[in-house]
Amino acid sequence: MRTNDWNDIGWQSEADAWLTARLDELGTPPTGPIERVRVRPWSVTHRAPTAAGTRWFKANITACRYEAALADALTGIAPGATLAPLATDAERGWMVTADAGPTLRETRTAANRTATWIDMLQAYAALQRATAPHVTALLALGVPDQRVTMLPATLTALLSDPQVHATIGPAEQANFSEWCAALSADGIPPALQHDDLHDGNVFADLRFFDWGDASIAHPFGSLLVALNVMHDAMDAADRQRELGRLRDAYLEPWSDLADLPTLRSSVTLACRVTRVSRAVAWQRALRDAAVPVDEQFRTAPQAWLNELTADTTV
What we know:
Protein name: Aminoglycoside phosphotransferase domain-containing protein
InterPro entries: Aminoglycoside_PTrfase, Kinase-like_dom_sf
CATH topology of the largest domain: Aminoglycoside 3'-phosphotransferase, Chain: A, domain 2
Radius of gyration: 20 Å
Helix content: 40-55%
CATH class of the largest domain: Alpha Beta
Number of strands: 8
Number of helices: 12
Number of domains: 2
Strand content: 5-15%
Distance between the termini: 44 Å
Largest sheet: 5 strands, antiparallel
CATH architecture of the largest domain: Alpha-Beta Complex
Pfam families: APH (PF01636)
Strand order of the largest sheet: 1-2-3-5-4
Protein backbone atom coordinates (compact mmCIF):
# COMPACT_ATOMS: atom_id res chain seq x y z
CA MET A 1 0.00 0.00 0.00
CA ARG A 2 1.53 3.34 -1.05
CA THR A 3 1.76 6.16 1.51
CA ASN A 4 0.71 8.48 -1.31
CA ASP A 5 -1.14 7.48 -4.45
CA TRP A 6 -1.59 10.26 -6.97
CA ASN A 7 -4.25 8.19 -8.77
CA ASP A 8 -6.37 7.60 -5.67
CA ILE A 9 -9.59 9.63 -5.86
CA GLY A 10 -9.63 10.12 -2.11
CA TRP A 11 -6.09 11.51 -2.12
CA GLN A 12 -6.90 13.83 -5.03
CA SER A 13 -10.01 15.13 -3.27
CA GLU A 14 -8.07 15.79 -0.05
CA ALA A 15 -5.29 17.61 -1.92
CA ASP A 16 -7.71 19.75 -3.92
CA ALA A 17 -9.71 20.59 -0.78
CA TRP A 18 -6.49 21.71 0.93
CA LEU A 19 -5.49 23.78 -2.10
CA THR A 20 -8.94 25.40 -2.31
CA ALA A 21 -8.86 26.26 1.41
CA ARG A 22 -5.43 27.87 1.12
CA LEU A 23 -6.46 29.89 -1.94
CA ASP A 24 -9.61 31.04 -0.13
CA GLU A 25 -7.47 32.19 2.80
CA LEU A 26 -5.25 34.12 0.40
CA GLY A 27 -8.28 35.87 -1.10
CA THR A 28 -7.79 34.22 -4.48
CA PRO A 29 -10.30 31.34 -4.66
CA PRO A 30 -10.27 29.06 -7.72
CA THR A 31 -12.29 30.42 -10.62
CA GLY A 32 -12.51 27.10 -12.46
CA PRO A 33 -11.70 23.40 -12.16
CA ILE A 34 -8.41 22.30 -10.61
CA GLU A 35 -6.43 20.23 -13.14
CA ARG A 36 -3.76 17.60 -12.61
CA VAL A 37 -1.03 18.52 -15.10
CA ARG A 38 2.21 16.69 -14.22
CA VAL A 39 2.41 13.23 -12.67
CA ARG A 40 5.68 11.61 -11.67
CA PRO A 41 6.41 8.69 -9.32
CA TRP A 42 7.93 11.16 -6.85
CA SER A 43 5.70 14.24 -7.25
CA VAL A 44 2.49 15.56 -8.73
CA THR A 45 1.41 19.05 -9.79
CA HIS A 46 -2.10 20.52 -9.96
CA ARG A 47 -3.06 23.81 -11.63
CA ALA A 48 -5.77 26.15 -10.31
CA PRO A 49 -7.04 29.24 -12.15
CA THR A 50 -7.68 32.30 -9.98
CA ALA A 51 -8.52 35.96 -10.58
CA ALA A 52 -4.91 36.76 -9.64
CA GLY A 53 -3.46 34.28 -12.13
CA THR A 54 -2.55 30.60 -12.17
CA ARG A 55 -1.65 28.92 -8.90
CA TRP A 56 0.30 25.67 -8.67
CA PHE A 57 0.04 22.88 -6.10
CA LYS A 58 2.90 20.41 -5.70
CA ALA A 59 3.06 17.27 -3.55
CA ASN A 60 6.09 15.04 -3.00
CA ILE A 61 6.38 11.48 -1.77
CA THR A 62 7.48 11.07 1.84
CA ALA A 63 11.21 10.76 1.09
CA CYS A 64 11.18 14.08 -0.80
CA ARG A 65 8.63 16.04 1.21
CA TYR A 66 11.34 18.27 2.71
CA GLU A 67 11.04 20.42 -0.42
CA ALA A 68 8.10 22.40 0.98
CA ALA A 69 9.89 23.31 4.21
CA LEU A 70 13.11 24.04 2.31
CA ALA A 71 11.34 26.33 -0.16
CA ASP A 72 9.83 28.20 2.80
CA ALA A 73 13.19 28.54 4.54
CA LEU A 74 14.93 29.85 1.43
CA THR A 75 12.61 32.84 1.24
CA GLY A 76 14.18 34.09 4.47
CA ILE A 77 17.74 32.96 3.77
CA ALA A 78 17.98 34.47 0.28
CA PRO A 79 15.01 36.81 -0.33
CA GLY A 80 14.16 37.12 -4.01
CA ALA A 81 16.48 34.33 -5.14
CA THR A 82 13.91 31.54 -5.14
CA LEU A 83 10.25 30.96 -5.89
CA ALA A 84 8.52 31.70 -2.58
CA PRO A 85 5.58 29.46 -1.62
CA LEU A 86 2.24 31.09 -0.91
CA ALA A 87 1.33 28.28 1.50
CA THR A 88 2.91 25.05 2.70
CA ASP A 89 2.16 21.94 4.71
CA ALA A 90 5.63 20.76 5.72
CA GLU A 91 4.35 17.58 7.36
CA ARG A 92 2.74 16.37 4.15
CA GLY A 93 5.21 18.03 1.79
CA TRP A 94 2.57 20.14 0.03
CA MET A 95 2.95 23.68 -1.25
CA VAL A 96 1.24 26.34 -3.35
CA THR A 97 3.09 28.78 -5.57
CA ALA A 98 2.13 31.55 -7.97
CA ASP A 99 2.86 31.25 -11.66
CA ALA A 100 6.25 32.89 -12.23
CA GLY A 101 6.25 33.09 -16.01
CA PRO A 102 8.67 31.46 -18.44
CA THR A 103 11.86 29.69 -17.47
CA LEU A 104 15.29 30.84 -18.52
CA ARG A 105 15.39 28.03 -21.08
CA GLU A 106 12.21 29.35 -22.69
CA THR A 107 13.54 32.90 -23.02
CA ARG A 108 17.22 32.53 -23.88
CA THR A 109 18.34 32.67 -27.48
CA ALA A 110 21.34 31.30 -29.36
CA ALA A 111 22.82 34.80 -29.32
CA ASN A 112 22.58 35.36 -25.56
CA ARG A 113 22.94 31.74 -24.41
CA THR A 114 26.37 31.96 -22.79
CA ALA A 115 25.71 35.33 -21.15
CA THR A 116 22.40 34.04 -19.79
CA TRP A 117 24.05 30.93 -18.36
CA ILE A 118 26.79 33.03 -16.76
CA ASP A 119 24.16 35.17 -15.04
CA MET A 120 22.37 32.03 -13.86
CA LEU A 121 25.51 30.34 -12.49
CA GLN A 122 26.70 33.42 -10.64
CA ALA A 123 23.27 34.07 -9.14
CA TYR A 124 23.10 30.44 -8.07
CA ALA A 125 26.58 30.59 -6.48
CA ALA A 126 25.47 33.64 -4.49
CA LEU A 127 22.40 31.72 -3.32
CA GLN A 128 24.56 28.79 -2.25
CA ARG A 129 26.90 31.03 -0.27
CA ALA A 130 23.88 32.49 1.53
CA THR A 131 22.84 28.99 2.62
CA ALA A 132 26.24 27.93 4.01
CA PRO A 133 25.71 29.49 7.49
CA HIS A 134 22.31 27.75 7.71
CA VAL A 135 23.37 24.15 7.02
CA THR A 136 22.43 22.87 10.47
CA ALA A 137 18.96 24.41 10.26
CA LEU A 138 18.37 23.01 6.78
CA LEU A 139 19.42 19.53 7.84
CA ALA A 140 16.92 19.80 10.70
CA LEU A 141 14.18 20.36 8.10
CA GLY A 142 14.98 16.96 6.59
CA VAL A 143 17.18 18.08 3.71
CA PRO A 144 19.40 15.03 2.99
CA ASP A 145 22.94 15.07 4.31
CA GLN A 146 25.31 14.41 1.42
CA ARG A 147 28.35 16.19 2.79
CA VAL A 148 31.56 14.81 1.34
CA THR A 149 32.51 12.91 4.50
CA MET A 150 29.19 11.02 4.28
CA LEU A 151 29.56 9.88 0.69
CA PRO A 152 31.75 6.76 1.08
CA ALA A 153 29.13 5.28 3.43
CA THR A 154 26.40 6.41 1.01
CA LEU A 155 28.12 4.54 -1.81
CA THR A 156 28.44 1.40 0.31
CA ALA A 157 24.73 1.55 1.15
CA LEU A 158 23.81 2.00 -2.50
CA LEU A 159 25.86 -0.99 -3.55
CA SER A 160 24.14 -3.13 -0.90
CA ASP A 161 20.72 -2.34 -2.39
CA PRO A 162 19.62 -5.41 -4.40
CA GLN A 163 17.75 -3.10 -6.79
CA VAL A 164 20.98 -1.30 -7.75
CA HIS A 165 23.11 -3.40 -10.09
CA ALA A 166 26.22 -1.25 -10.43
CA THR A 167 29.61 -2.49 -11.60
CA ILE A 168 31.69 -0.85 -8.86
CA GLY A 169 34.48 -2.96 -7.33
CA PRO A 170 36.76 -2.50 -4.29
CA ALA A 171 39.36 -0.56 -6.29
CA GLU A 172 36.77 1.95 -7.50
CA GLN A 173 35.42 2.32 -3.96
CA ALA A 174 38.93 3.00 -2.65
CA ASN A 175 39.49 5.65 -5.35
CA PHE A 176 36.16 7.20 -4.47
CA SER A 177 37.13 7.47 -0.80
CA GLU A 178 40.38 9.18 -1.81
CA TRP A 179 38.49 11.72 -3.95
CA CYS A 180 36.17 12.47 -1.05
CA ALA A 181 39.07 12.91 1.36
CA ALA A 182 40.79 15.36 -1.02
CA LEU A 183 37.60 17.30 -1.62
CA SER A 184 36.76 17.56 2.07
CA ALA A 185 40.11 19.28 2.67
CA ASP A 186 39.66 22.07 0.10
CA GLY A 187 38.21 24.64 2.52
CA ILE A 188 34.90 25.11 0.67
CA PRO A 189 32.02 24.94 3.18
CA PRO A 190 29.05 22.63 2.61
CA ALA A 191 25.96 24.38 1.31
CA LEU A 192 22.67 23.69 -0.40
CA GLN A 193 23.22 21.70 -3.59
CA HIS A 194 20.28 21.67 -6.04
CA ASP A 195 21.42 18.41 -7.71
CA ASP A 196 19.33 19.10 -10.83
CA LEU A 197 20.50 22.57 -11.78
CA HIS A 198 19.76 23.68 -15.32
CA ASP A 199 18.01 26.56 -17.07
CA GLY A 200 14.68 24.74 -16.96
CA ASN A 201 14.69 25.00 -13.15
CA VAL A 202 15.15 28.76 -12.92
CA PHE A 203 12.76 31.44 -14.07
CA ALA A 204 13.72 34.21 -16.46
CA ASP A 205 14.06 36.60 -13.51
CA LEU A 206 16.68 34.25 -11.98
CA ARG A 207 14.50 32.78 -9.24
CA PHE A 208 15.39 29.13 -8.65
CA PHE A 209 12.87 26.37 -7.97
CA ASP A 210 12.29 22.58 -7.93
CA TRP A 211 14.30 21.53 -4.86
CA GLY A 212 13.05 17.93 -4.66
CA ASP A 213 16.54 16.48 -5.33
CA ALA A 214 18.43 18.97 -3.16
CA SER A 215 20.87 18.07 -0.41
CA ILE A 216 23.50 19.58 1.84
CA ALA A 217 26.72 18.79 0.04
CA HIS A 218 29.85 20.20 -1.55
CA PRO A 219 28.36 23.15 -3.43
CA PHE A 220 30.37 22.59 -6.61
CA GLY A 221 28.53 19.31 -7.22
CA SER A 222 25.74 21.34 -8.79
CA LEU A 223 27.94 21.73 -11.87
CA LEU A 224 27.63 18.01 -12.64
CA VAL A 225 24.14 18.35 -14.09
CA ALA A 226 24.47 22.01 -15.10
CA LEU A 227 27.56 21.50 -17.26
CA ASN A 228 26.25 18.22 -18.67
CA VAL A 229 23.11 20.01 -19.85
CA MET A 230 25.13 22.89 -21.26
CA HIS A 231 27.51 20.44 -22.99
CA ASP A 232 24.60 18.72 -24.71
CA ALA A 233 23.14 22.05 -25.87
CA MET A 234 26.35 23.06 -27.68
CA ASP A 235 28.11 21.89 -30.78
CA ALA A 236 31.65 20.52 -30.45
CA ALA A 237 33.42 23.80 -31.23
CA ASP A 238 31.42 25.72 -28.64
CA ARG A 239 32.04 23.10 -25.96
CA GLN A 240 35.80 23.43 -26.13
CA ARG A 241 35.60 27.21 -25.96
CA GLU A 242 32.72 27.82 -23.57
CA LEU A 243 32.47 25.12 -20.89
CA GLY A 244 35.61 26.22 -19.07
CA ARG A 245 34.42 29.80 -19.26
CA LEU A 246 31.11 28.85 -17.68
CA ARG A 247 32.84 26.88 -14.92
CA ASP A 248 35.09 29.83 -14.12
CA ALA A 249 32.13 32.23 -14.09
CA TYR A 250 30.46 30.04 -11.46
CA LEU A 251 33.70 29.97 -9.45
CA GLU A 252 34.14 33.75 -9.42
CA PRO A 253 31.88 34.27 -6.35
CA TRP A 254 34.00 31.67 -4.49
CA SER A 255 37.36 33.25 -5.37
CA ASP A 256 37.95 34.63 -1.87
CA LEU A 257 38.23 31.05 -0.52
CA ALA A 258 40.96 29.63 -2.77
CA ASP A 259 42.96 30.36 -5.90
CA LEU A 260 41.52 29.47 -9.29
CA PRO A 261 43.58 26.27 -9.90
CA THR A 262 42.43 24.91 -6.53
CA LEU A 263 38.82 25.80 -7.23
CA ARG A 264 38.99 24.15 -10.67
CA SER A 265 40.43 21.00 -9.14
CA SER A 266 37.59 20.96 -6.62
CA VAL A 267 35.03 21.24 -9.43
CA THR A 268 36.45 18.15 -11.12
CA LEU A 269 36.41 16.16 -7.88
CA ALA A 270 32.94 17.42 -6.93
CA CYS A 271 31.51 16.43 -10.31
CA ARG A 272 32.97 12.95 -9.83
CA VAL A 273 31.65 12.31 -6.33
CA THR A 274 28.27 13.93 -6.97
CA ARG A 275 27.40 11.01 -9.24
CA VAL A 276 26.80 9.14 -5.98
CA SER A 277 24.56 11.97 -4.78
CA ARG A 278 22.61 11.74 -8.04
CA ALA A 279 22.24 7.99 -7.61
CA VAL A 280 20.94 8.28 -4.06
CA ALA A 281 18.61 11.13 -5.07
CA TRP A 282 17.06 8.80 -7.65
CA GLN A 283 16.86 6.00 -5.10
CA ARG A 284 15.09 8.39 -2.71
CA ALA A 285 12.70 9.60 -5.41
CA LEU A 286 11.68 6.09 -6.39
CA ARG A 287 11.22 4.76 -2.86
CA ASP A 288 7.49 4.33 -2.12
CA ALA A 289 6.70 5.72 -5.59
CA ALA A 290 3.19 7.13 -5.85
CA VAL A 291 2.54 5.72 -9.33
CA PRO A 292 4.15 2.80 -11.22
CA VAL A 293 7.76 3.47 -12.23
CA ASP A 294 8.93 3.25 -15.84
CA GLU A 295 12.07 1.20 -16.45
CA GLN A 296 13.95 4.29 -17.66
CA PHE A 297 13.58 5.72 -14.15
CA ARG A 298 14.06 2.47 -12.24
CA THR A 299 17.61 2.00 -13.58
CA ALA A 300 18.73 5.60 -12.97
CA PRO A 301 20.62 4.94 -9.69
CA GLN A 302 22.83 2.28 -11.25
CA ALA A 303 23.31 4.34 -14.40
CA TRP A 304 24.81 7.19 -12.36
CA LEU A 305 27.00 4.80 -10.37
CA ASN A 306 28.27 3.13 -13.53
CA GLU A 307 29.59 6.55 -14.64
CA LEU A 308 31.59 6.95 -11.45
CA THR A 309 35.00 6.52 -13.10
CA ALA A 310 34.14 8.30 -16.36
CA ASP A 311 35.73 11.63 -17.23
CA THR A 312 33.90 14.77 -16.12
CA THR A 313 32.73 17.49 -18.52
CA VAL A 314 35.45 19.86 -17.27
